[in-house]
Amino acid sequence: MPWNEIFLLGRRKSKHPTDPASAGTVEQHALQDTRAAIEELSQAVRNNPESVEIYLALGNLYRSQGEIERAIHIRNSLIARPGLDPVLKARSQFELGRDFRRGGMLDRSRRAFEEASAVLGRTEEIELELARLAMDSGEFELAAEHYGRMGRAMPQAHFLSRQAGEHFRLGEISLGEKFLKQALTVFPASPEAWLASVVQAALSGDIDKLKSCLQNACANIPAPQRFLLLEGLLEALSAARVDNGGGSGAKALPQARISEMVQASVQVLAGFPPDTLLCYYCARLFLFEADLENAKHWLEKVLVLNADFWLARLELVSLVLTDQDLTHFLRDQMTYFISHARKSKRFVCQSCGFRWDKTFFVCPRCRSWHSILFRQEFS
Fold first, then answer.
1. Quick check: helix, strand or coil at residue 188?
2. Are the CB atoms for 264 and 213 separated by under 8 Å?
3. Which of 89, 99, 158, 297 is 20 to 30 A from 328, comparing alpha carbons?
């Protein structure tokens, strides 16, 4: 049996139910299955100590259990074995590199991958592990280089954008813009790169640049992902109200300039075909400015496009509460429910269903790229 088939042995013994209430039981069963697979493989090793594939699979199972020292011991015993085939030795070095990375030993991990690549070549597996190492070390430009060698434009642009963000944070504006230009050359629809461009324009208070960036960003990014830009824009405008003193190159902007940027942003968004999320964020921008009449107007547009858009209904209820003659008790209850409903997780991964209250470019659960969606309907 191939070692990768053996590695999956413990995971095929039961199908995991999807009921969240049984999550603890599922996790316990998975742990029991993995321990059972380890016991079976350990017995197989005793019966056939020359089987390198079984050793590799056993090491992988130990790593999956967090028993890094035992996994490393298995790899080192294989690497030291006299007469071991160079390819199998290199494969052991590769797995050793993954063990070291899991254990937080990044320098040793990188050396192990480099030794493996001397025999196996720069395979996609090795490039991917080196990219992850670079990411863990904060070496975003290097991570982008590794993804570039694999021909993966989306993550390459992501890390070029993160490198740009580092330069903006240090006040190195020209270098930041250089990396953003590279990111958009690699992947013109990169929401990360356009987001960084829009945020930098907002923080600098450059209205013409903000309009240009926002126009081009909305034209290039798929409509379901535009909200990523607008969430970032609202955060940037909020940051521009007060001096954050963090060396990001941002300074406090006059309230009049912020109001002009809000008006300019809505003007750009209104120029696109009617879209539920664009209308919703126009309302959010006016709410940011405490312009309640315009906010209500845009929220009503949202409900014409999608009557089930729960956040728009929530904001409308909040706006009309002040006009209603309610008892003190009922007003307190409504305020309570509205404040808690606003905390509902608005973003969801379309690949695995993971929900979060923050935006993300890589799903924290399934690691899918750009799988985020805005939850327009409440469930």
1. coil
2. no
3. 297
Report if residue 304 sits inside a domain.
no
Token pair, residue 63, equals 């790593």
User: Which of the pair, 125 or 318, is modelled with greater confidence?
Assistant: 125
CB-CB contact of 102 with 112 (8 Å): no
Helix (H, G, I), strand (E, B) or coil at 328: helix
Boundary of a domain, candidates 99, 121, 143? 121
Confidence of residue 5 (pLDDT cuts 50, 70, 90): very low
Q: Is residue 89 part of a domain?
A: yes
Which of 98, 121, 144 represents a domain boundary (last residue)? 121
Distance between CA atoms of residues 90 and 179, nearest Å: 35
Instruction: Report the alpha-carbon distance of residue 157 to residue 287 in Å, rounded.
Output: 33
Q: How many CB atoms lie within 10 A of CB 302?
A: 26
Structure tokens at 164: 């740009």
User: Helices 207-220 & 255-270, crossing angle to 10 degrees?
Assistant: 30
Radius of gyration of the chain (CA): 26
Strand order of the β-sheet with 355-356 is 355-356, 347-349, 372-374
Residue 147: strand, helix, or coil = helix
CATH code for the domain in which residue 11 is found: 1.25.40.10
CA distance 302 to 279: 6
Give Cα 51 distance to the centre of its chain. 40
Q: Average of pLDDT values for 247-253?
A: 61
| Distance from the Cα of residue 98 to its chain's centroid | 22
Note the pLDDT tens digit of each residue in 177-208: 999 999 999 999 999 999 999 999 999 999 99
| Locus of tokens 């307190």 | 332
**Nearest Cα to 268, choosing from 323, 313, 226, 329?**
226
Q: Which pLDDT does position 345 carry in this prediction?
A: 83
Measure CA 334 to chain center.
Answer: 34
> Does residue 43 form part of some domain?
yes
3-class SS at 355?
strand
Q: Is the pLDDT of residue 33 over 90?
A: no
Domain hosting 83: range is 3-121
- Determine which helix (DSSP H) or strand (DSSP E) holds 349, and give its type and residue range: strand 347-349
Residues ≥6 apart with Cβ < 8 Å to 151: none
* DSSP-assigned letter for residue 30: H
**In this structure, how many other beta carbons lie within 10 angstroms of the beta carbon of residue 303?**
16
CB 279 within 8 A of CB 302: yes
